[in-house]
Structures are given as structure tokens and as C-alpha cells.
Amino acid sequence: MLKRFILLIAFAALFSSKTNASHLMGGEITWDCVGGGQYVFTMKLYRDCNGIATSSIVSLSVWNHPTVFSIPLNLISQTDISPSCNSGGPGISCAGAQAQPGWPLSASPVAGAVQETVFQSAPLTLPGVPSGLGWIFTYDDCCRNGSISNLQTAGAYGFTLRAAMYSYNGQNANPCFDSSPKFLENPSSVICVGYPFTYNHNAFDPELDSLSYSWADPLDDFNPVYNPPLDPISIPFAPGYSAVSPLPGVIQNPANVPATINAATGEISFTSFTQGNFVTVVKVEA
Fold first, then answer.
1. If residue 211 lies in a helix (H) or strand (E), which one and from where to where?
2. Which residues contact 224 (CB under 8 A, 6 or more apart)?
3. What residues form DSSP beta bridges with 112?
């Protein structure tokens, strides 16, 4: 049955001829229906360890709800999720890198070092029935990496994470009646040039609702209110790229195998001989 929860995960990955080199930023917003009929919201942010530290004081903005306008979040954990290396490759972590396994760490992180920061709310009540526009939950920040290859002047834009909760048969959301889908797989930040690549976010719905997947637009940050498509705007793609074709294809190199996303399973497949830093956004609906 379709309950119409929409979640989006955004991230950037660097395709490199080296085994381990990447740049990642993005995140996701989800929620759980817990005891007492209340909701607990979770936000995950993925940070390039070469960038500035993630703020420890954040909140979600809530749009279209009559009484709840923001949801404070508490810092739960920070985890190094840097990609594992094969036995012949360098070791990578947020603490630094090893030129060879067993060698001393470098003084600072290198490309490929990624940190996951998890925030969570206290249990809360969301009374009422979502309108036709849904209740929208957002987090926005500035700024994007200027070296992103598939966006125009990427450094001039921020980013917005968003999730939407819609009405289910006119049912009041107090008490809560459903949890959102969850992305069980960490985003992949290391993709090697010239090798076939397959990835799945492994989204899971606790109530076993059917899920559908699609590409979506990356959004700028916004000011003062969330009012798409006017604010935030969809960030313009560089020539040869689009929301439904965000990764290198035959336009960039005839040898590339364009990316596809399976609408039923969420599996993404492609082969790229084009190096660069690329943003993708995946939407899952339940």
C-alpha cells in the first residue's frame, strides 16, 4: 500500500584512476514511529574529512505543519566510514592516510576520507493530517565543493536535504502510524575509472511497504522559506548532465556506459572512463 513518504539521499563521489580517491558530501532524513505514538527523527550527514567540522547544534525545519516549525536534533555519533582498501592499496581514514599498509599515517586526511555524523530528535508528537503538499522536513547548509564536475559553478551553491510525509487515508498522524524507509547502505565514495560499478542503497521499509526509486534534482540552500521551485532552486547541471543523467555518459566519453537506476530495486549501474567529482540525488517513495 502506498503511504507516500518521500526521502532523498544526496552525495558526491570522485571517479579516479587511483584506487582510493574521493570527495563526498550529502545526507538523509528519516523517522521512526516509536512507543507512545510519537516520532523520532534521524539525520545523517556525510562529510569530507578535509572539510570543516560538522556543527554539533542543528535542527530540522518543518514546513506546512500548523504548530510544529522546527525539530531540535542531538548529536549521537561521528563515525569514520572511509572506504576499505585492498591489500595492495593505501590505507585511508579521517586521521590520515598510509602510503602502504603498515606505514605511518600522513599528517592530514586525503581524498577518500569520509565521516558520518548522526543526529536524532527526542520523541515528539505531530498532530494533524498532512495537507496535499505534505509535511516537509529540511536541513540546509552552505557550501558545495567548487570542484564538482556535473554542476555549473557548484561552489556558488549550498545544499538542502529534504523528506516529505503525506496523508494516508486522511489518518491523523497523532498517534503515529508508520516509519519512513531507511537507507541501510553507506554511500559509496570511491569509484574507479574504467571498471563496471553497481551500487544499491538497500532502502528498507519497516512496515514492508513497496518502494520506488528515481533520480532527483540537487537543491541549493534557501532563504528565508522553503518554497520550491522558487526557493530553493534546483542547481543547474553542467552541459551534458541532468537530474536523470547525472553521471558521465557517452557524451563525455563514447566508452562510458551511462548510469541507470532500477525503479523497483534502486540498483545503480554504470561504467565511467571520465574522472571528476559528481553529485547524485536518489529519491525513494513508499
1. none
2. none
3. none
